[in-house]
Specification:
Helix content is 18%, strand content 21%. It is of the alpha+beta class. The chain has two domains: 241 residues, no CATH class; 130 residues, no CATH class. The protein has a six-stranded antiparallel sheet with strand order 3-4-6-9-10-11, covered by helices on one side. Strands 1-2-8 form a three-stranded antiparallel sheet, with no helix packed on it. Strands 7-12-13 form a three-stranded mixed sheet, with no helix packed on it. Helix 6 runs antiparallel to helix 7. The radius of gyration is 23 Å and the shape is globular.
């Protein structure tokens, strides 16, 4: 009897130990743990979620829009390895790299339980958190954390949805829809926030049809080339990655840099191109899923026709909105591009994944961009009228 009690007690201790999060980041080379805590990426205590040692928080020059969700991004690598710089595509990351992106909203002031509040607040400068020391959870509704894990066979994408108590997140292989209400200064907008399934993750992260390999979207020189707080102070992020041993091969000069889409000191064309690059170019590029559309929105493309100027659509169906060309210089109201960016119709909207509501500020930017363009489309649009 005593022996059985001792065995039972030891088994209970073992199970309890297994239920605790690791004390350091743990790379899983083959299995996909059901709980995010098994990766040992974060600690949650005293109303704050914080990254474990060695994780570097980063931000993009212009981020991808996701229904006004705020995002906390980190990267971690095992000791003794590093990524290799590439000028145009994602850096060449070593096996063992873990990239995290945590999506969250600010809960309204006075919310008794931010994690279960269905009403969330549209992002404002006052609610922004850098995430360098983690996130203050007192007014934060955590939604999901997506992992990109670099294994020997390539990258794998794993979406985790945060539990209602906000203490852990559960793997959601099939994705999910989460009903939320956005508060835009007193105007309420209800929508379904969509957590992608693993196949949908590939739909955006496979940027080259020839390899079909998943790659990071934001971890490219032109998106990271900016100052951001963290280790070493507020310095250039590429320099920080070099200083931490995470990146090698960065040239002394001629590093590409996209514009900050919100920086009004920069011309509208540069800001719009940066916005289209991060939101659209993972598909709209010479090797992407939308390559046959003839509309290429990556930063490297400079041919006006490939950028949509006076270009008729390719098999867009009702996605044209009866507009003649992708972009009609000076006439956003006659251009397909802003029409599809503004739409919330699943059969029309672009991007096809990652949003349920219109990004009003982003659409306004594209309107202003097209208004700034000079020229005229002289081809007959099929109605007997030239687009001018």
């Amino acid at each position: 009897m005593i022996v059985r009690l001792v065995v039972s007690f030891c088994a209970a201790l073992l199970l309890a130990a297994c239920g605790h999060a690791p004390q350091a980041v743990t790379f899983h080379a083959d299995d996909n743990p059901e709980k995010l805590s098994a990766w040992g990426l974060f600690t949650i205590a005293a109303g704050r979620i914080a990254p474990h040692q060695g994780m570097v928080t980063y931000e993009l020059q212009t981020p991808l829009f996701s229904d006004y969700a705020q995002k906390w991004r980190t990267i971690w690598m095992p000791k003794g390895v590093h990524a290799a710089y590439r000028p145009d595509t994602a850096f060449d990351f070593p096996v063992g790299t873990i990239v995290t992106k945590t999506f969250y909203y600010t809960a309204p002031a006075g919310a008794t339980d931010p994690q279960t509040s269905d009403t969330v607040v549209k992002m404002t400068p006052a609610t922004y958190q850098t995430g360098v020391a983690g996130l203050d959870l007192r007014h934060v509704r955590l939604i999901e954390t997506r992992l990109l894990v670099r294994r020997a066979t390539g990258w794998v994408a794993l979406p985790y949805i945060w539990d209602n108590d906000g203490r852990d997140a559960t793997l959601a292989r099939t994705g999910a829809d989460i009903a939320l209400t956005l508060d835009e200064g007193g105007k309420k907008v209800s929508f379904d926030y969509s957590v992608p399934n693993q196949n949908q993750c590939a739909g955006c992260h496979v940027q080259d049809f020839r390899t079909r390999a998943i790659e990071p979207i934001g971890l490219k020189a032109r998106h990271l080339n900016r100052d951001f707080p963290g280790e070493g102070g507020e310095i250039n992020q590429l320099k920080r990655l070099v200083a931490t041993g995470y990146l090698t091969g960065v040239p002394a000069g001629a590093v590409p840099r996209n514009a900050n889409w919100q920086d009004l000191k920069i011309g509208v064309v540069a800001r719009a191109r940066a916005y289209l690059d991060i939101n659209c170019s993972h598909c709209h590029n010479p090797t992407g899923a939308a390559r046959t559309s003839g509309l290429w929105l990556d930063a490297a493309t400079i041919d006006p026709r490939l950028l949509g100027m006076c270009k008729p659509p390719v098999a867009a169906g009702r996605g044209t909105g009866d507009r003649p060309f992708d972009v009609v210089p000076g006439h956003p109201e006659r251009s397909i591009l802003p029409y599809r960016l503004a739409s919330t119709d699943p059969g029309v909207m672009m991007p096809e994944l990652g949003r349920d509501i219109e990004h009003q500020e982003g659409v306004r930017l594209i309107y202003d961009y097209i208004l700034s363009l000079k020229g005229a489309c002289t081809e007959d649009d099929g109605t007997g009228q030239a687009a001018r």
